[in-house]
């Protein structure tokens, strides 16, 4: 039982204890969005099209929500991808002097410590490859082309072949200092809770569009970090979800 104790304690609240965060030290906060260098291709995403919503009744979306591990080989539209990104991580409002963002999902202290990466395999108008969602602008940043996405996603998810058959895989990278800046060592619990909010929003949005998804927490950390080209220390993958037609 002792081997479980440390992780059980990690799940508990420590907020009654005194902490002295970098925010309280008046240190500069990390940027709301990960910067990128000039030279990368940026794609404009279409405006949100409510007409593509097949299931308007939120009660039905919640009651019908379930995990799907089988997808048909039919492309997603860019309108659908735009909607899913909007529903999960779009920026509705910037508060203060670039202090915080308001999004469709809650986040402790409005820190929103995630960057959304996409392993695109079958989306109309987009070539196979790895992209990053620019939430502040509602655009896509093309990182690199990858023709062997199916094989690499399957390997990266420890042999879960259905992930490799999806039209697109959502891959959430966490930049922990966004949360640590405000909550110090207590940040890590709430950031993982935040990841659950994001993925549930994806589930409900997929249900509304007639698509399927499956949350994945079992993956090869090194392979997935390498896929999105992050260092595994200041940014690393924390959650994934393939999306496809059902």
UniProtKB/TrEMBL annotation:
InterPro entries: Bacteriocin_Proc_Enz, Nitroreductase, Nitroreductase-like, SagB-type_dehydrogenase. It holds the Pfam family Nitroreductase. Residues 62-245 form the Nitroreductase domain. NCBIfam families: antibiot_sagB. This is SagB/ThcOx family dehydrogenase. It comes from Tissierella carlieri.
């Amino acid at each position: 039982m002792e081997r479980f104790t440390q992780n059980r304690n990690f799940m508990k609240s420590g907020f009654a204890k005194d902490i002295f965060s970098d925010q309280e030290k008046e240190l500069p906060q990390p940027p709301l969005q990960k910067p990128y260098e000039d030279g990368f291709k940026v794609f404009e995403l279409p405006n949100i099209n409510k007409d593509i919503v097949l299931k308007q009744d939120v009660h039905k979306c919640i009651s019908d929500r379930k995990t799907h591990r089988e997808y048909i080989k039919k492309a997603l539209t860019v309108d659908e991808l735009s909607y899913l990104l909007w529903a999960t991580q779009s920026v509705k409002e910037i508060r203060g002097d670039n202090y915080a963002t308001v999004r469709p999902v809650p986040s402790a202290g409005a820190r929103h410590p995630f960057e959304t990466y996409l392993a695109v395999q079958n989306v109309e108008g987009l070539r196979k490859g790895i992209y990053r969602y620019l939430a502040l602008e509602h655009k896509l940043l093309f990182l690199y082309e990858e023709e062997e996405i199916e094989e690499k996603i399957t390997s990266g998810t420890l042999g879960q072949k259905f992930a490799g058959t999806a039209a697109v895989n959502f891959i959430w990278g966490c930049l922990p200092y966004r949360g640590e800046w405000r909550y110090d060592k207590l940040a890590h619990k709430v950031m993982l809770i935040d990841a659950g909010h994001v993925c549930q929003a994806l589930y409900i949005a997929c249900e509304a569009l007639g698509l399927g998804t499956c949350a994945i927490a079992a993956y090869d950390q090194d392979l997935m970090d390498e896929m999105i080209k992050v260092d595994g220390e200041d940014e690393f993958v924390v959650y994934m979800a393939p999306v496809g037609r059902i």
